[in-house]
Amino acid sequence: MKRTSSSNGKYKIASEISTFNFDVPALVRAARSAVREAVRQHKRAGHSIAAVVDGKVVTIPASRIKARRAG
Q1: What is the structure's pLDDT at 4?
Q2: Is the pTM of this model over 0.70?
């Protein structure tokens, strides 16, 4: 985006319309895969994880992290 200076010396963003085309299903798959890998690494290292359960943040110890299959 282009920046233009205004009379008061601050910058404002010039109005431009940008279109982004994302493969949303691919992004969701990538995010899920990243979370699975992070959970696996925490379990392997013996670190707990934080999660939201019934609207509350809880800490799950590594011994209670359940292994899930990919897919």
Answers
A1: 54
A2: no
